[in-house]
Inverse folding.
C-alpha cells in the first residue's frame, strides 16, 4: 500500500508525536531503536514505525515494572527471614525515608510512593543493608550477570541482584542522590547522601568505579550517631583506656591512630576529639570527608576542586593559634612535613594511617613519609592501633574448649589453662554464623627511651617492628585473649585476625 503524506512525518512532527527532544531522538536513531530516512538534509519518518516503537517502549516499561515488583517482594521475604514480624516489615517498607542529597536539598520518599519507583527500590536496597547491620553494599556488573552483596560482620553475603536494565537505573539514581556526574563513565567518582532509618541518621558514601563490563558501586553505610562515641564506649580494656587517656593528656606531640581499612579508626579518633574541652581549647579538624559535625570545633572540609588541600588547610590553620589539630589522613610527604612543623612548634596533632598494627605504623611514618628520625623521636607521643573481631552471638552462646594448637598460638600451655571460653552455636538470630556484631582489639604503643633510641638508630624495618612489639603496652593478640576470656569473642577469631601480623 502506497504511503500518503499523512503517513510520513518530518522531524518536528516526529518530535511532537513521540513527545521527546532532538538529542534523544538522534540517540534512538543512532542506536537503531527507531527507523528514519534522510532525504538530503531532512529526516522523514513513517508513522507506522513510530507506533511500533512506542508499543515496544510500553512493553519494556511493563517488563521493568514486573522486575521491580519481584525485587521488592524478595526484599520483603528476606526481612521476614531475618526475624522481622509482618507488622515490623510493613513499618520498614512503608516508613518515609528522608534523603539529604549531595546538593544539600532534601527528598522525601513518602509511604504512598509507588512500589515500582526506582527511587524506592534504591531505598529498599539500602534499607536491607541497614536492617541487617551491613557495613557496606556492593553492586557489581559482569558479562552475563549483575551481583548484589552485603558485608555483615566482615563477611560478604550475596542476594538476588537487580536485572541488568534495572541495575543501570539504580546507578543513575545513586549518582543523582550523591550529586555525581551522570556523563562521566570512565573515571572513579565519590559522593554521599544521608538517610534517616529507625530513628537514626546514616551517611551513605557512594563510590563509583568503572570496571570491565560497566560501572560498579560500593555504598559505605555509616551510622552518624554512633561515630560520636566517648572513650569509655570504645570497649578498651582498663589498661588500654588508661594508656589512651595518658596520651590525650599531653600538651603537645603527635598521636597516631592506625588499623586496617574499615577498622573504626575514625570513630576512635572522633572519640578522642570528643574528650577535649572545646571551651578551653582552640580545636581544628581537617577532613575529607567531614563525617560528623562537632559543636565548638572548627572543621575544614578538604576540597581539591576548590583548591582546599590537606596541606593548604594545615598551613592556614597554623595561622589561627590552634591548640589541637586533627588531620584525618596524611596524603603526601609535603603534608607530613607541615604536620611535623605543627607538632614541633608546640601543638597537639592527631592523625590516622592504615596499617595492620602499631609497629607497622611506626615503620611507615619513618620510611614512607620522609619524616626525619630525630623529628619523629622528639615528636611522636604514641600510636593507638586497632582491629575488628566478631562478637559471639548472645542468643546461642555456649562454653567450649579451644583446640590445643589455638592455645599454643597464644603462648599458653594447654595443661595449665583453666579459663572458660565461649563460642556461638549458630542460630537464626546470627544467620547460623555464631557471631553477631563486632568489637575491637587494641595495640597501644607509648614512646619510651628504648623506642626513641631505636627510631634514631636507623635500624632495619624488621628490627624496629620487633622492638616496637616488645615495648607495646598491650599487643592485639594479648587484648584478644582477654576479650575471649570475657566471653566477647573466640580465640579462633582473634587468631584468624592477628596471625599475619
Amino acid at each position: 500500500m502506497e504511503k500518503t503524506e499523512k503517513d510520513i512525518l518530518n522531524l518536528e512532527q516526529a518530535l511532537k508525536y513521540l513527545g521527546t527532544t532532538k538529542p534523544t531522538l538522534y540517540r534512538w536513531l543512532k542506536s537503531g531503536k527507531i527507523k528514519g530516512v534522510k532525504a538530503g538534509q531532512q529526516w522523514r519518518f513513517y508513522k507506522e514505525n513510530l507506533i511500533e516503537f512506542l508499543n515496544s517502549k510500553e512493553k519494556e516499561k511493563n517488563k521493568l515494572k514486573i522486575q521491580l515488583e519481584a525485587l521488592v517482594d524478595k526484599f520483603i521475604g528476606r526481612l521476614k527471614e531475618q526475624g522481622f514480624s509482618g507488622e515490623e516489615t510493613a513499618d520498614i517498607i512503608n516508613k518515609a525515608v528522608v534523603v539529604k542529597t549531595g546538593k544539600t536539598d532534601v527528598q522525601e520518599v513518602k509511604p504512598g510512593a509507588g512500589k515500582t519507583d526506582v527511587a524506592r527500590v534504591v531505598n529498599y536496597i539500602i534499607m536491607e543493608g541497614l536492617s541487617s547491620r551491613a557495613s557496606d553494599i556492593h553492586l557489581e556488573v559482569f558479562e552475563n550477570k549483575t551481583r548484589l552483596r552485603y558485608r555483615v560482620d566482615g563477611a560478604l553475603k550475596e542476594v538476588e541482584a537487580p536485572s541488568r536494565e534495572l541495575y543501570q537505573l539504580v546507578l543513575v539514581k545513586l549518582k543523582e542522590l550523591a550529586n555525581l556526574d551522570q556523563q562521566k563513565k570512565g573515571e572513579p567518582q565519590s559522593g554521599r547522601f544521608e538517610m534517616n532509618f529507625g530513628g537514626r541518621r546514616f551517611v551513605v558514601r557512594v563510590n563509583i568505579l568503572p570496571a570491565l563490563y560497566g560501572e560498579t558501586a560500593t555504598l559505605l553505610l555509616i551510622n552518624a550517631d554512633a561515630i560520636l562515641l566517648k572513650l569509655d564506649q570504645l570497649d578498651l580494656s582498663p589498661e588500654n583506656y588508661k594508656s589512651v587517656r595518658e596520651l590525650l593528656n599531653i600538651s603537645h606531640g603527635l598521636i597516631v591512630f592506625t588499623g586496617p581499612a574499615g577498622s573504626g579508626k575514625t570513630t576512635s579518633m572522633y572519640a578522642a576529639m570528643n574528650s577535649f574541652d572545646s571551651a578551653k581549647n582552640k580545636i581544628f579538624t581537617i577532613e575529607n570527608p567531614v563525617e560528623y559535625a562537632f559543636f565548638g570545633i572548627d572543621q575544614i572540609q578538604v576540597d581539591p576542586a576548590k583548591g582546599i588541600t590537606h596541606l593548604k588547610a594545615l598551613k592556614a590553620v597554623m595561622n589561627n593559634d590552634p591548640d589541637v589539630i586533627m588531620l584525618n589522613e596524611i596524603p603526601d610527604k609535603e603534608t607530613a612535613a607541615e604536620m611535623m612543623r605543627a607538632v614541633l612548634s608546640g601543638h597537639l596533632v592527631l592523625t590516622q594511617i592504615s596499617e595492620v598494627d602499631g609497629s607497622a605504623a611506626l615503620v611507615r611514618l619513618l620510611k614512607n613519609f620522609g619524616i626525619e628520625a630525630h623529628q619523629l623521636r622528639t615528636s611522636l607521643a604514641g600510636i593507638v592501633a586497632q582491629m575488628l573481631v566478631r562478637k559471639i552471638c548472645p542468643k546461642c552462646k555456649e562454653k567450649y574448649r579451644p583446640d590445643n594448637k589455638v592455645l599454643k598460638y597464644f603462648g599458653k600451655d594447654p595443661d595449665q589453662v583453666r579459663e572458660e571460653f565461649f563460642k556461638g552455636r549458630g542460630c537464626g538470630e546470627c544467620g547460623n554464623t555464631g557471631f553477631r556484631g563486632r568489637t575491637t582489639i587494641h595495640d597501644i604503643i607509648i614512646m619510651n627511651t628504648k623506642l626513641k633510641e631505636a627510631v634514631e638508630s636507623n635500624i632495619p624495618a624488621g628490627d624496629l617492628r620487633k622492638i616496637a612489639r616488645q615495648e607495646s603496652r598491650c599487643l592485639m593478640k594479648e587484648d584478644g585473649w582477654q576479650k575471649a576470656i570475657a566471653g566477647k569473642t573466640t580465640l579462633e577469631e582473634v587468631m584468624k585476625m592477628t596471625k599475619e601480623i
Remarks:
- The radius of gyration is 28 Å.
- The chain has 18 helices and 20 strands.
- The mean pLDDT is 87.
